[in-house]
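hey m, so remember when u said the tokens were messed up on ur end? i reran from scratch. heres the input so u can diff it against urs
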Amino acid sequence: MPSFHIEPYAPDLHQARSFRSGVSAVDTWLRSAKRALQAKTSAVFVLIDLDEPGPRRRVLGYFALAASSCEVNELPGDSAEGLPAFPVPCFLITWLGLDRTLQGQGLGDALLGKAVAKCLHAREHVAAVLVVVDSLGDEATAWYQRRGFRAFARTPRRLFARMEDLAERSPAPGASSPPA
């Protein structure tokens, strides 16, 4: 049984070349993630197997986070209730991918759960109202919607969840959490 773990991406310690999610944009971005780290445009975290031998562990999945803002008038219906009429701060899940050999095992949920947990933790120090993600297709959009994300009014592949809703759904401290 693999011993999965999520940790910050370090190009010298992690091997991304063989990563294949089935979506070329997701695969290509991971191979260029070193530039995002150097430019401080995204924080990148990778899923690895601690039992895998060798000096550089293979990346099995990843997510990247960045700070952003959103126009409140782009939110649908009552989603903007209680928010100011100007752009609000949010966290952006810039990328999330899982190697196709591991898809369908709940590890995508573990990656998303860890990304959300990091956003909730960061919110203790940096204000944010939403977590936003841009999906790359209908299948990904549906996947996020099944996990409580809603589409923006004019851009159906841009999805969001309110931080307060995510905090309510997150496990209590000390409760069991997804592998990682």
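this time it looks ok to me. The mean pLDDT is 91. if urs says something different then somethings off w ur setup not the seq
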